[in-house]
Automatic annotation (TrEMBL):
Keywords assigned: Coiled coil, Metal-binding, Repeat, Signal, WD repeat, Zinc, Zinc-finger
Entries under InterPro entries matching the protein: COP1 (IPR042755), WD40/YVTN_repeat-like_dom_sf (IPR015943), WD40_repeat_CS (IPR019775), WD40_repeat_dom_sf (IPR036322), WD40_rpt (IPR001680), Znf_RING (IPR001841), Znf_RING/FYVE/PHD (IPR013083), Znf_RING_CS (IPR017907)
Disordered as annotated region, ranges: 50-80
Gene3D superfamilies referenced in this protein's UniProt entry, alphabetically: YVTN repeat-like/Quinoprotein amine dehydrogenase, Zinc/RING finger domain, C3HC4 (zinc finger)
Compositionally biased residues, Low complexity: 50-79
Organism: Folsomia candida (Springtail)
GO BP, sorted A to Z: proteasome-mediated ubiquitin-dependent protein catabolic process
Domain RING-type: 119-156
Listed name of the protein: E3 ubiquitin-protein ligase RFWD2
WD repeat positions: 490-532, 576-616
Coiled-coil parts of chain: 211-268
Pfam short name (any one): WD40
Amino acid sequence: MSSTLVLLLATVVCFFAIVHLPEGGQAADDCTVCPELRVYQEKGGHDFVSMMNTNSPPTSSSSDNNPGSTATPTSTSTPIPVYTRCGPSAPRILYKRPHALICNGKTDTWGKAMSEYDCPICIGVLKEAAITRCGHTFCLECIKRSLSVKPICPQCGTAEQTENIVPNYIADQLVIKYLSTQKNAKTEIAKLNDTSPSEILQNMNVHKLNLNNIENLIIILQRKRDVLSAESRVHERTLLLEFLGELLKLKKAEKDRLEKEVYLIEQDLTQVTSRPYNAVKGGGMNVLHNDLESGDEGIPMSSDIEGFNTQVLSCQELKEKSMSARRKRMHSHFDELINIYMDSRKVDLHDVRRNDATVVPNDSFDYQDLDRFGSTLSRISRYSGLKPLATLSYSADLLTNNNIVSSIEFDKDSEFFAIAGVTRKIKLFEYATVIGSSVDIHCPNAELLCNAKISCVAWSGYYKNRLGSSDYDGFVTIWDASTTQKIQNLTEHEKRVWSVDWSNGDPRLFASGSDDSKVKLWTTITNQSVATIEAKANVCCVKFCPQNSFIVAFGCADHCIQYYDFRHARQPLATLTGHKKAVSYVKFASKDELISASTDSNLKLWNLQSASTECVRSFTGHINEKNFVGLGTDGNYIACGSENNSLYIYYRDISRPLLHFKFDNNPNMLKVDDAGEFVSAVVWKKGSPVIVAANSQGSIKILELT
């Protein structure tokens, strides 16, 4: 029995010896310290004996585990690390497995990784802090809810009752201070985000930075650069996708529009090609031949050519030459002609029936717009220049510079024309006599002597011998041109009168506009005005509507054009705005169309029939910044002067000049250059391509479009 006990004891001893063999499989000759104990002694400086003689671990502040935080009391339930000696006589060592990481990296709801201002129950900042009898602090609502479920402290397990909970005012104050610090930190971060990097570096104490700090800064900046680069690439890709998508939509819409335009042009081309040429039938070629022989005076015919070795041009060659010149003029305005064509055909462009192949193009659509465009094309290319027919002089004294012609007007039959200006004379010439004379000096048929400088003259549209004039002294005078005597002298205007015009509908009515900002309606029956329109600025020009006896348009120095009915003079029918300077002239192109000239170097065509009375087109190319340069029209072509001593011709559908004519310097003038000379008056001879224009030196040209 004793031997059996001895054998059993030896077996147990051997087992423990094998279990506690040191690393390497060999038993230690003496008690040696385990590696864990050696590390612990090196770090903490405590030996095994002192550790074993106490029931608590070496004290350490919470700053060892959480730098930057304040120290907190160590819980008695914290597991004590126990280290042992190797050998059969040493006590057994047990290591407690750490808690799993939960809740954003915290070991548990009351671990040391949690902030001291957090509630252990809700893991949020303390709200209405309350302390239990055991000394732990929670949110008031959280601890009440916890105790209602189980009446023990959630942190230490001590029995607690709701009645024993008291407010923790100190904790509340600390929480308030903590939140204020956090808010200030966020504010500083926001300020830092608004601060430029150069200011941040300037405010930073760079002298205290060591190499590690600089390397860390570089790493942080590189990471930030990578983040910004990635965001930039994302934004770039997003914008690129949006741009390409919008561009694709635009190009598809443009493609659809171009396809419709091409289809419309092909239809028009087919229509023009298949249309019978009516001019060839019924002697059309003979009419054309006669026009060529008698029409262009600038092109010599074979029967008129004499001289040594002169090449005689046939009719066919003349036609080809004329067509070549017209083709050249067409191409010089090709861009604007494209716009005119598309505007005239825009209704047919959006006609969905044209996409139906079953519809016959030649029989199903109206081509009047195409015909009108053809007429426009013909008018644009018809004339190639201005040919002087005669030259007159307003004043016999060529050495004076004060010879400005302010107004030229034809009578109702275009047989006589009147010339007036600053010499206080109105000279009357017979057109046929001037044109038919072979001499360069032309004497007037009559002269009307005035008391002041003349600003405007106007012939009555009903009485052939009735002529009206306005002057710088503010007088409006009615003359009998046949006797050169004054019929009426009207003096109601208080300042200079710029314009006078007769009504076409009622031969007794005429109107005047003045610097006193008034437009007055007069009658030949009495010397008192019968109506007055108060304008807001100086009135520079007045014109009656050709088809209405009471409607007038007048331009003012406030850049506006007023359109009035004298029978309802309180409110204008329309106010046309668009000019940038004073409106110097207005002319009616038709009943519903008005042309205006301004010292902003622009002519404008207005549509009076539209609700918005919009500007249809602006004409630019001449120079007009300070003077009255004249304006004339036949309804299709527009003539105006320029301050470079030239006359410009426009067509109503083209914004650029078709033609221009330069006035010559008078060789008898003392002035060498023409820097100050300008065309001052223009009139269009009714029913013909003849224009009479005068400049500031008193030179008058009768010009014909050829």
